[in-house]
Design goal:
Strand content: under 5%
Bound molecules: zinc ion
Mean pLDDT: 89
Low-confidence stretches: none
Number of helices: 4
Number of domains: 1
Helix content: 40-55%
Structural class: mainly alpha
Shape: elongated
Distance between the termini: 29 Å
Order of helices and strands: HHHH
Amino acid sequence: MPAAPRPSIAVMLSRGAVRRCPWCGDRRAYFTGWFAKQERCRSCGLSWRRDDVGFELGAATVNTIITFGLVIVGVGVSVALTLPEVPVAEIIVGLVIGALLVPVVVYPVSYTLWQAISLAMRPPSADELVPPEPSPPG
Ligand SMILES: [Zn+2]
């Protein structure tokens, strides 16, 4: 089976940012629930692990970058809006709550974004794209 034309990095990142398969753009991609995922994309058959033992480490790194980025922006905006009387305790409580919620909210997106980065660095070979068997009717 010939490999599909390679999407641009911008297309793959935008697909990954909305939890779609970065390669084919299918919105069913990998996640069957917020945390539940299956091994392969339900459309193009690309495995989300891509035979990388440390794929989850890359996804966790993307999740950490997003979370820390939002915390840093949150600190900057909070301090800028409340100067000169900065309510430090309230800002810390808000940021801790945000730092606990954001990783949960961006969990699936961190996987699809990391896969977009992985695909940009190493496009899939033709044998990685194995369309799944159609499910029997009924
Ligand atoms: Zn796909």
